[in-house]
Amino acid sequence: MNRAISSALLISCIIIAGCKKKQPPPNMEVPVNLLKIIPRSVLYYDKYPSTTAALSQVNLLPQITGAITAIYFREGTHVEKGQKLYEIDRRIYQAGYDQAVANLKVQQGTLAQAQQDADRYAYLNKYNAVAKQLYDHALITLENAKNTVKASDQAVKTAKTNLNYSIVYAPFSGTIGFSMVKLGDVVNPGSTVLNTISTDNPMAVDFIVNEKQLPKFEQMQNSRQHVVDSLFTILMPDNTLYPYNGKISVIDRAVDAQTGSIRVRLVFDNPKGDLRVGMSCVVRVHNQDVGPQLVVPGKAVVEQMGEYFVFVAKDTVINNPKAQTDTGRHKRELIAIEKKVQVGQTIGPNQVIKSGINAGDRIVTDGIQSLHDGSQITTANKVGPGGGKRGR
Fold first, then answer.
1. Residue 283: how many CB atoms within 10 A of its CB?
2. 150 or 15, which is more confident?
């Protein structure tokens, strides 16, 4: 019984399969949109992350010990060279200076007395009216008095220097930061930082470039006249364009052997103080490529393991010996050829291609996800969602 049922089911399946209509072979051509590459002039900037820096910056350190008795500036403001900033308790240093001056006057009096004695003994010795020993001792006393005056004079200078150190002045014009000490704090030389002051106009902007770009930047540095205006500009942290242009000031002396990069410093005028030390900006270097560029939609570029590729449409002839006519035997088809390219700057939705394709090539802009090298393609379909132009 089971055997009869199994046979009946098998026969039914064969009949049903035979009644089904044969499905047409699947279409192997992938629908795509193509774009013919026409060189055109483009405006773009090479962009580099950067940081603002002061051309000069110094920590203010006390040279003497004492308590802070006065602060003469407002934190975070511009100060001028020679402006009074801090005062350290002057009383002990003023007293030391006055004492040194008084001691110098005493030694000067002693010197005058020794000079008189030496002159008197010299006169008496001329006529052999005094013992030779007394005359020699007078000369020695005079010499000692002279040396004592010199020592006292140096003591006065030291005391004067210490007294002057009790007032801290701005070493150059710039912006001063938050005070690290308050009124009454005791400061010590070599261990206490009073404040930090940095120049603010002009302002430096530092960024890192690959060593391969070094010749280009050296040429920019040595060129007195640039091909384009606004060669160096910066975008502020809020993405606004800074209104002043910069110029190359310094290219670092050596390449970093670990990263193969080198630091470049630009200088920008900063009359309004918009640039502050340590700000994160973006340096824009105006492109120097004045000739036409090959520009493709960014969606046409495929990245694979750090390398970039595009698909180029190529006309080919496919041989089909089983075809009934000559036209069928030699059918013209489009195939997609994968080309490795070197990409340049990104300009909005588009990408500059430095090498790998040529002017006049037709590249695939839509349908890339279904392609591999050698895929048959067609443009006979409606334009896809990407909106690329149909190849001609």
1. 22
2. 150
